[in-house]
Design a protein that fits this description.
heterodimer; A: mainly beta; seven-stranded mixed beta sheet; four-stranded antiparallel beta sheet; globular; B: 110 residues; mainly beta; five-stranded mixed beta sheet; 44% strand
Chain lengths: 116, 110
């Protein structure tokens, strides 16, 4: 979907395990955003990152969740000690370099996380 | 909280124009309106965005009222594949954060 690649598409974890979700932005995009979607709800913003920097993490739960976007490689959303309530679809979006502009975000097809 | 309100659902006959309204009465002068749609469980697909002038692309047209308090997304000839949830989004001023509401569930009928 618009070139943003997320993997895996589906991830199953048992309670207490760790989940790692990966996102490769579109070519030329250096801004990455993570959103979470529960069934029958809209997407909820979690975190906004640029290369090697977290810009806005106001939507991230205070514990167990972390995100990074290293200089090389994909952005990673990490959930430690998963619980059943973490079951959701997690979407990544990216946008181009220029700040302050109106460029839209482009979304990947998400990772569906299921906690047993 | 979402800065937009949309009808929960709409039906449209195949081949007819689908007009999806959105109210954003608290929008500020430099905030853009973005439209996305989500088909089944796919990621949101960007459709169009605008500031104050009407916009058109290969997918749709966007009509923004002069006072910018509302807008309408127009799919000129709806097809069955346009069945989706359509989201109208006003970006939080000064941030890159999208606030998604519950959107409009459009069903295109054969």
């Amino acid at each position: 979907n618009a070139g943003v690649m997320q993997n895996p598409r589906h991830l199953v974890r048992r309670r207490g395990q760790e989940a790692r979700l990966r996102c490769s932005p579109m070519k030329g995009h250096s801004h990455v955003y993570w959103y979470r979607q529960l069934p029958e709800e809209g997407l909820k913003f979690m975190v906004y990152l640029q290369k090697e920097n977290i810009i806005d993490e106001s939507g991230m739960p205070k514990e167990r969740f972390s995100a990074e976007f290293p200089k090389e490689g994909p952005s990673i959303l990490r959930i430690q000690q998963v619980v059943r309530g973490d079951s959701a679809a997690y979407f990544c979006a990216s946008s181009p370099v220029r700040q302050g502009g109106n460029q839209p975000q482009h979304f990947g097809d998400g990772t569906r996380l299921s906690i047993l | 909280d979402a800065k937009t309100t949309q009808p929960t659902s709409m039906d449209c006959a195949e081949g007819r124009a689908a007009n999806l309204p959105c109210n954003h009465s608290t929008i500020s002068g430099n905030e853009y309106v973005y439209w996305y749609r989500q088909i089944h469980s796919q990621g949101p697909q960007y459709i169009i965005h605008g500031l104050k002038n009407n916009e058109t692309n290969e997918m749709a047209s966007l009509i923004i009222t002069e006072d910018r308090k509302s807008s309408t997304l127009i799919l000129p000839h709806a097809t069955l594949r346009d069945t989706a949830v359509y989201y109208c989004i006003v970006r939080v001023e000064g941030t890159y954060k999208y606030i998604f509401g519950t959107g409009t569930r459009l069903k295109v009928l054969a």
